[in-house]
Amino acid sequence: MKRVTVRDQIPEIYGKILEVGPELQKILGDTLAELVKLRVSYINGCAFCIDKHTADALERGESRQRLFLLAAWREAPAHFTDAEQAALELVDQVTRLGEHGVSEEAYAGAAEHFDERETAALILAAAHMNLLNRVAITTHLHPPRRRS
């Protein structure tokens, strides 16, 4: 069955949702924002978003190795800064809320490295990417084939 294209059916709302990403990226910076988007997408299994944000991160100069290791970031601590690890832990727990909520340790770890505005941006970035993943997966939005 063909699924609805949300962007086409409700462009006035979908467009506003997409405007959130660049605003959060201004607060978090390109590197961390792309890591957050990609990590959430790995957890949710969103192929479209994994493809898009991997390509975006590579364009911005992220290393292929860090992108590969992001799926198992806890086992590769030397490849991620302490601040990135704290952000990824918070993002993982925000994405997996149904399992155990967000622990005090994860929240405190992020707060140790990020001010309140940046912490708020991390929470919103995770929630925003979760929303986009759910739309993409539900509507069967698939990545295009790339030559490279």
From TrEMBL:
Signal peptide: none annotated. It holds the Pfam family CMD. InterPro entries: AhpD-like, AhpD_core, CMD-like. Residues 28-92 form the Carboxymuconolactone decarboxylase-like domain. This is Carboxymuconolactone decarboxylase family protein.
